[in-house]
Amino acid sequence: MVMAINFDQVGFTYQPNTPFATPGLHDVSFEIPEGKFTAVIGHTGSGKSTMVQHLDGLVLPTTGKVTMGNQVVTAETKLKELNEMRAHIGLVFQFPEAQLFEQTVLKDVMFGPKNFGASEEDAQAAAEAALKKVAISPDLYERSPFELSGGQMRRVAIAGVIAMAPDLLILDEPTAGLDPQGQRELMTLFTDLQKERQITVVLITHQMEYVAQYADHVVVFEHGTVVKSGAPATIFADEEWLHEKQLDVPAAKQFADALAEKGIQLHNVLDIDQLADQLAARLNGEVDHV
Amino acid sequence: MFSNMIIGRYMPGDSWIHRLDARTKLVLSIAFIFVVFFANNVIGYALAGAFTLLAIMMTGLGVGVFLRGLRPLVLLMLITTLLQLFFVQTGDVLVHWAFIKITTDGVINSVIVFVRFMLIIMFSTILTLTTQPLAVADGMESLLKPFKKFGLPVSELALMLSIALRFVPTLMDEAQSIMNAQRARGVRFNEGSLMARIKSFVPLLIPLFVNAIKRAIELGDAMEARGYRGGDQRTKYRVLTWHTRDTIAIIGFVIFTVALIATRWIM
Ligand SMILES: Nc1ncnc2c1ncn2[C@@H]1O[C@H](COP(=O)(O)OP(=O)(O)O)[C@@H](O)[C@H]1O
Ligand SMILES: [Mg+2]
Asked: What is the ipTM of this complex?
């Protein structure tokens, strides 16, 4: 299924026409390249989660239009029309463990696939495969999800979305509040999934290290609109601009910049591997001279 | 569906009404429910309506906010009104069709019930729109204090009320986000047969209850950890203070009540 995604002048207001109307998005235009890893960054409250709800047809734009494959979504679209589209989209919400409700871990993971029409056997197979991917061991399958640790609950909830085998996987700060080890494992899982299944991944994160390391494309939100989008190298090139937007620079780039101040110029350093390679090359070079 | 509803919600502001003591507003809102019944003719209802309108305008929130906010309730009010239409059978018969009989008294009664209902809701909405929920809880505690003598656990009730009020918006937000998460997993709320609709709410209600209970336990632990103890020795961070404006508001209301009673003899 083709899933080129395009936002065209999208605006969204929470509770429009009431005294409680809150602007969520305005004049949002950008593209999400198909089959790529796109990172969405921006300050808290900048509209990232609001945008993501448009991607799954959970809300309709107040103005403008969202194009997803051959489905065009505008304010006039009937929400029911989007049920079909949703079967191809996986959305992991912020703190997704809040969505667990079934009696057992396995049943909860089977819930999504079954809702979208999978047979009992297919759903179970998909669920078991997904649970394996998130490293939940089979002896937990029959346990209640409410007996698990916070980290395990998060994994089960993520498995519940992966089991739907989405063509578009959206992750809203999926690693928030996890330990560093757990964060790394999940990030590896997402990138592996993306490569393996050639799906489109949209990741909202505050961790620039991950953006630098994994993203093919970056979209920057500020005050409810997109202020910049492009390749990670382009986004991270202008450090002053990032500081102005209260966004971090990846640690490896900070390191390289600090070295540059001392007169050691490295090029195109965004993640730790690039930094290590270039430093190694430098050090070898010097050693050779001696 | 309920996004337009203004009932039970607070809208910040700095009007004279906003600054009134919560106790004043509570007492007057309750008093109004009874006082409205003094009106027994057009002039009386016009006076009560004018008084309500004056109070609404003094909130500085705009009459439109009230009218739009109460629109969802109009259906409820119309049903009540229609019941009057069918159950009051005295007076001249206007329509007589099969077992349905509509009479003049029925119509008059319906209109009266509708107007009374409308006025009372408008007036109570002024209280909730202009008073912070916690101030309402404090006000109730203060007003109920005399009942402590009779063994009513007033402080505990007020604490329960303020915690409940505090968590209403949190629960609403949480319900919305769980609903979205389940819709993303293919649940179709408000679609299909009645049975399917009821079943679709299970994935919403279970997490909502589990989280609410978890939160209650955490809150209890946090209060205990900080040494919370109920009872008489507790002092308040927000102290309710009586101002001249509260006296003025009470006097204004008394004048209105007297005038309303007087209208009974005008016609
Ligand atoms: N359910 C809601 N009701 C009203 N306003 C909301 C709601 N959710 C988010 N907002 C508002 O929309 C804006 C964007 O929020 P959000 O999309 O959650 O930002 P982010 O995910 O980037 O932190 C914020 O100003 C926020 O207050
Ligand atoms: Mg967010």
From this structure: 0.87
